[in-house]
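tokens incoming
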């Protein structure tokens, strides 16, 4: 899939990202490589950054919901 195709797909499909409010600890297979850490220090921060990117930069039709006591991001 090309970058243009991926962008078109992200813009075309309404998507809700579910972010866990307590997904802030580096547990369970957490990627702490320098590249991953540049995306955010926690899975929640990475999810927030991705949401912001696809919404503001790509103009995608997205929504975000945060769930208390949830510890994972689901797209």
């Amino acid at each position: 899939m090309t970058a243009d195709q991926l962008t078109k797909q992200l813009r075309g499909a309404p998507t809700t990202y579910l972010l866990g409010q307590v997904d802030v600890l580096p547990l369970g297979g957490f990627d702490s490589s320098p590249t991953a850490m540049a995306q955010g220090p926690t899975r929640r921060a990475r999810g927030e950054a991705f949401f912001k990117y696809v919404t503001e930069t790509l103009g995608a039709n997205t929504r975000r919901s945060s769930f208390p006591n949830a510890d994972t991001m689901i797209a």
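note: Strands lie at 15-20, 62-67.
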